Amino acid sequence: MARSIAARLVLTVPVLLLVSLLVFSLLLLIPGDPALVILGPDASPVEVRRLSRELGTDRPIVVQYAAWLGRALAGDLGRSPRTGQPVVAAVGERLPPTVELAVLGMVLAIAGGGALGLAAGWRPGSLIDRATAWLATLGIAIPTFLLAILLILGLSLRAGLLPPSGYVPWRESVAGNLRAMVLPAMTVAATMAAVIARVVRSSVLETRGELYVVTARAKGLSEAAIYLRHVLRNALVPILAVTGLQVGRLMGGMVITETMFAIPGIGRLAVDSVLARDFLTVQGVVLVMALWVLLANLLVDALNLVVDPRITRV
Amino acid sequence: MSITRALAALAAFATLLTAIPLDALAQTRGGTLRVGQARSPVSLDPALGISLHEFHVLYSIYDGLVGYDESLALKPALAESWQRTDPRTYVFKLRRGVKFHDGTDFDAAAVKWNVERILDPATKARVRDLDVVEAVEAVDSHTVRFRLKSPTGLLPTFLAERGGLMVSPAASKRLGPDLGRNPVGTGPYRFVEWMADDHITLERFDQYWDKGLPHLDKVIYRIIPDESVLVTNLRGGQIDYVADVPPKDLGTLRREGALTVEQRPGLGFYWINLNSGIAPFNNKAIRQAMAYAVDRPAMLKSLYFGAGTAATGPLAPPVWAFDPALKGYPRDVTKAKQKLAEGGMPNGFTFKMLVGSTPMYRTNATAVQAQLAEAGITAELEITETVKVLQQVVARTYQASSTIWIGLNADPDFVLYPLYAGQGLFNKDRYKNPKVDELLDRARSLDKQDERRKLYQEAVATIVDDAADLWLYYPDVTAAMSKKVRGVSLSADGRVRLRGAWLEK
Question: With an 8 Å Cβ cutoff, are A42 and B226 in contact?
Fold first, then answer.
């Protein structure tokens, strides 16, 4: 098991390389000369050319990529021509809020979606099953920005329970941090919880009909024992797979959630940088996001090995 | 003493009384002011940023050599006085006893170093006003002489803008490119921390040269990118002050009455930029047809909730050369059709309008499109990213684009020269009129406001007659704040100045 995880870890390196190459070529397709964007509409063509030369954007793409890669391997992702800040620092300071939001959102989604799915799957056709179906449809259908605004208006402005937006770092106040994170985490979790609820429900339903469950019941095991030991464990495999896939989607939804709740995270940095043609920063952000998705999927695979020992043999 | 004279004296006395700001009598020290804004500064190095909203923070950290009063007239700041000794020479006397936040002294050497830093290509400064400076000399420890490449009366104004905001030379040498994240100036507040995309914290600078100021202990700028969430935070009391309130919210906030709402005419305008360098807009009659086809007051009322003034030309009311007698182009579809015939296109024409991703650009473009259609002109909208628009505008391959002009200050040169002079930075290969060129050049070299006003009004009359662009409306400058916020100055330039701000207990 350890060996297969190690092999996967080694594989992340070429994947990251490929991602960086892909991002580099994609950025070329976006119209808009970075030098022009930085200097603004009143720049003279001479200045634009001078800045292009300084940025290296006037050189062939292969040369640009090689130069970037050489420095990146030494741990230097460059300095943003827009803000003058080193890319590593820019990404580093925005990473904690995003990671925290992603983790809290995932925990909330798994707990909420999982519980609803289990309940619905256990008693198909019951009131709770139908309610779950409704909630799941709503969760998948509602746009993130709308949900965010509704949560802010309802729970913050009307009820006054939580702050409407903002971020409080851990070191300042743990309670403040969590209070500020409740609404954004709920927003991030909504879609994911809905998908998980649906998958858990169908997975449980399917497993319930398996012959080994019938056997367990025939042996006289209590319903609770059947559910926990047989149904749940076997239903976990597809649930884990879906959760792994959702991690990538989560990062996408993060951009809007961060904007709505004024959280200084990596999603906003990504959008701002793309709009300003700050390619060095975009490259840095994408690498970190890719690494995050890879690691998350690796973790899911590792958990699968624990849950389902049969996988090792494949 | 006759009764009339007594009355006149009484009236004079009454004016004097009202001239004393009541706020000045009851200021209290201390407290934290939380300012909310939608966009984060990109850099707090005054030479590097380009956006208007950065001034909200810059003005707290830095002082200019020259400052503005409430009506945007120039007033002394770090320079106590200045004199134009000949058309190409200015001498500035500096204030004594001014310290930078890092404890170093502000003197003539610092001014020389600052100006040379901006002129040095290695700084990559976006500020270009000071290109007119040939050399700066420190005459003595507190006197600076500027030699200019060409005669201009605008140097003091240039030094009230970004180029005049004084950075600590010691700090800049120490920090290099990191200065933008660790600004050091002479301003009323000193930099404490900047959490990217979240907040910037400043604290009172105890050795500020203007004794008694500032009143606040701390200022926090919070970045809240979504406008509705920003306003929600203000209503909920999480922040105390917001500039640039969305016009749709102004009415509601006023009705609710829990906050103070400020609103005054601004310097900029929403407009359709016409490329008069190429067809069809190289034809004056065609441009005039466009001008007659658009209903500006209706657009202002329905699209911008009336928070502004319908435009008559390129100068907004707070610009001192604004001519209230100027009529502009009231909507007249019949006249528009006549002008089309006169321009050789009696059946109308089709053109492409670039629209950036800002929602207001799109709203304006759609309304203009519908109104032009009534006169037989077809506008095809190309809605795309702002950067892409910029590229085509710079390359002059565009026909028209829906955008905003943000007025920097109340000097008409800052609008007219870049947009309508043959050599203007935003105008090259676009609008050309030798008469306008001559008027603008002459006005630029003078420094008496009355003489300049006449020249500018004549230039504007010509530019408007040429219908050089489609000016739509001048949006108001707005702010909303908690009732306890006092002394924040919001001028027509839309910049927030916290020097004299205080909080009522």
Answer: no
